[in-house]
Write a structure and sequence with these properties.
The protein is α+β, with helices and mostly antiparallel strands and about 475 residues long. The protein has two domains: about 120 residues, Sandwich (Immunoglobulin-like); about 240 residues, Spore Coat Polysaccharide Biosynthesis Protein SpsA, Chain A (Alpha-Beta Complex), CATH 3.90.550. About 25% of the residues lie in helices and about 25% in strands. The protein has eleven helices and 25 strands. Strands 13, 14, 15, 16, 17, 18, 21, 22, 23 and 24 form a ten-stranded mixed sheet that branches. The protein has a six-stranded mixed sheet with strand order 3-12-11-6-9-8, covered by helices on one side. It has a four-stranded mixed sheet with strand order 1-25-20-19, covered by helices on one side. β21 and β22 form a beta hairpin. It is elongated, with a radius of gyration of 32 Å. The protein starts with a helix and ends with a strand. One of its GO terms (molecular function) is acetylgalactosaminyltransferase activity. It comes from Synaphobranchus kaupii. This is Glycosyltransferase 2-like domain-containing protein.
């Protein structure tokens, strides 16, 4: 039997050893002052979910608040903030949230690509636990916008599952094989109808936790175009005219020298409209002086082909103008939405650079140039915007549209609105000519062609509210 003095010595030795072991494990970071980050939950030490900060306006950028009515400025700011909140609700995606997964987790779950139809039941693929043998296994799954269930649940399994058809589902079994068999039959069904939203599944086993996304999406019906082998079934030529019938007729004549049957759509907002004669020409008369973008919307709304070619009314087709080359590029790269060419050797492609900001708004700038070459297409480049000579996918452009509030000062603005929506390419080798300027008087046209400064100021005020911009640099 151990004496009292020996017992004291033993306790001192074991206590010292324990302290040394704790210090060692602490240094090796085996014991931590705070628990490790959970799967799907960002570490507090990481800056993966930074708050919106003020963006930086480039040198020479225009401060847009200077063009907003000072008397109603506070009310405009309030309304803009309210509209932006609604915009964020419409655009928010569950998949945009940052989710982190820890190392050495025994949980297996889908991290991408699990898409369900609203209100319909779907099995969650790949759910399982990889753990050592033990006497009991307990797993919990929970969601917020739907319900969970184990499909084909047998009578002998019912006491192992709690929360069947509810937001929180618990499974408790004594066998790892039984656990994974039940997890393989877990289904999800959304209970809140939405055509495009998501949910997050919280998956817990012992001290391990994971979060993975479910994308809830109503499938879309395909819209296909039968382009056949005839350019007339593939492309419609569109233009907008205003007080320039001499140039318009020259354009049509140059088109018909090469393309005899292709449809031409004209949007006309002249004060004294003149009927343009010719076969397969559709001329739509508008109220006078409605402007460029209103005319573009009208013309594109009447297109029935897969593509349309936009040209100005004073352009001129030459022997180098080959619409077929445009189509060939677009068909070989279905992800492209717009491909621009060059006008009299001027391609005028540009990048739109946008930085999201805080409550003051974002910062936008337009920079000449391209991003990088388009793979497999020589002399073509990815960019943000191109000149007024481009081939575009009809359905893609209709989704973005042309803002009719921009009457006389607008071109780049279409590509600004399409940033992130339209994939744009520039192929300078695809060319068209430009008619020489007439020496005759057309004072009424130039009065509108060179708008007053007030038009530009109105455009800047529009950018402030509509695009939620703090500053812009063209």
């Amino acid at each position: 039997m151990m004496s009292s003095s020996s017992l004291v010595k033993f306790l001192l030795l074991t206590t010292s050893a324990t302290v040394l072991a704790i210090l060692y494990f602490y240094q090796e970071k085996i014991i931590c002052s705070s628990p490790p980050p959970l799967a799907g939950i960002p570490s507090q030490d990481s800056n993966v979910q930074s708050q919106h900060v003020s963006c930086t306006c480039l040198k020479g950028a225009t401060s847009l608040k200077d063009y907003v009515n000072k008397d109603t400025y506070d009310d405009i700011i309030r309304r803009r903030a309210e509209e932006y909140k609604k915009y964020q609700i419409r655009k928010k995606r569950t998949q945009s949230e940052v989710l982190l997964a820890p190392a050495n987790s025994p949980l297996q779950y889908p991290i991408q690509g699990f898409i369900v139809i609203p209100l319909q039941k779907s099995l969650i693929p790949g759910l399982s636990v990889h753990a050592v043998e033990k006497q009991n296994y307990q797993v919990t799954l929970s969601v917020s916008s739907g319900v969970l269930a184990v499909e084909d649940l047998q009578k002998a399994e019912k006491d192992k599952v709690k929360g069947q058809g509810e937001k929180v589902l618990s499974i408790s079994v004594s066998s790892l094989q039984s656990l994974n068999d039940l997890l393989g039959r877990v289904s999800y069904r959304s209970t809140v109808y939405s055509i495009k939203s998501g949910d997050l599944v919280h998956f817990t086993f012992e001290q391990y936790k994971a979060i993975f996304p479910i994308e809830i999406r109503q499938p879309t019906v395909p819209v296909l175009y039968d382009i056949k082998n005839d350019i007339s079934f593939q492309v419609t030529i569109t233009t907008k005219t205003f007080l320039r019938y001499t140039e318009l007729n020259n354009l049509i004549r140059s088109i018909r020298n090469i393309y005899k049957d292709i449809k031409i759509i004209i949007a006309d907002d002249s004060f004294n409209p003149q009927k343009v004669n010719g076969t397969n020409i559709e001329q739509y008369f508008m109220p006078p002086a409605q402007g460029w973008f209103a005319g573009r919307n009208l013309a594109v709304s009447q297109v029935t082909t897969k593509y349309f070619l936009w040209v100005d009314d004073d352009f001129e087709f030459t022997d180098s103008t080959k619409i077929e080359k445009f189509v060939e590029i677009m068909e070989s790269k279905p992800e492209l939405d717009v491909v621009g060419g060059s006008v009299s050797s001027n391609s005028f492609s540009f990048k739109v650079l946008y930085e999201d900001g805080d409550e003051e708004g974002g910062c936008l700038s337009k920079v000449p140039g391209n991003y990088q070459p388009i793979p497999g297409i020589p002399n073509c480049f990815f960019t943000s915007g191109v000149i007024n000579f481009f081939l575009a996918r009809t359905d893609a452009v209709r989704k973005v549209g042309f803002d009719p509030l921009l009457k006389r000062v607008g071109h780049s603005e279409f590509f600004m609105d399409g940033l992130g929506e339209l994939l744009v390419g520039s192929c300078p080798q695809l060319s068209i000519g430009h008619q020489p300027k007439r020496t005759g008087n057309n004072e009424e046209y130039y009065k509108y062609r060179m708008p007053p400064r007030s038009d530009t100021e109105s455009k800047l005020a529009l950018h402030f509210f509509k695009n939620r911009l703090k500053c812009v640099k063209y």
